[in-house]
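User: Sequence in, structure out. Go.
Assistant: Echoing your sequence, followed by the structure tokens.
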Amino acid sequence: MTSSSLLDPRIKLRHVSCFLEVTRQGGVVPASRALGLSQPAVSKSLAELEDLLGAALFDRSGRRLVLTRQGETFAHHAMTAAAAIREGIQSVSQSGTRQRTVRLGTLPTVEVEVVPRAVAAFANGPLACRVHVESGPSTHMLSMLRDGNLDFIVGRLAGPEVMGGMVFEHLYSEQLTFAVRPSHPLATRSQLTYRELEPFPMLLPPAGAIIRPIVDSLFIAGGVGSFKFEIETVSNSFARAYTLENNAVWTISRSVVARDLELGQLVPLALDTSASHGPVGITMRSNEQLDAVALAMINAVREAAAAIVLHT
């Protein structure tokens, strides 16, 4: 590279683009699909880049390509450069920011209070643009995040076995609650055991939900055998409606029903749920530099979470 050149002319944008996409996807095949290129073309670009840098960027011994130490170093700088270029393009285009869509995943833990407040604040900010909010089971959200279809996820921390390639920013902790309608036979009891729930229909998170292992642990520790009727759902609207009309017990993160409890529409059962405390926060892809618009949305989430914690 000559002293008058800002960049090495041998390294092309396609080299960096292929490298970053393979890093994000964990393999050449999914990266080639995402880029709309052939697999040989992506492999050739990677080989050329490694030859130009004089270093192996990926460990190819496993099924997924994993960054080497040199690869991690280059990825950090390449992602920063790519983000700077995106921001530069947006800064010279009056409509650039408005055309951007922030895509966030929201788990049931935060879709009632934190995310609505955050989106409202973001909409009134200088970088406001279209916001896409995706909801569903944790496994679905994480899959979308890995594939680049979400910028980040807000909700409970997933298990370590599925957090590879992810980073988590802790915002606050909360515990579960068992909510019922005020006329439920157990509503006025001052102390309950988990076995006393067995005769009633139970609204439970599905097997893939983050809080399901926590719920199961509470039941095991409480000596629960089986329930009269079990309904698995991630739909808060269905669970709320069903609980209000039946003598069911809704197992859910406390923030989801905080407003219902405050208004007296639902009441919490007198069960010991102290063992259900868990971290709530933001999950993002590691080694990725988010643009200014996504960061503005994340800041809005942080502020909304902080306000809720202070209120409670």
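User: And one key feature?
Assistant: Residues 69-91 form the longest helix (23 residues).
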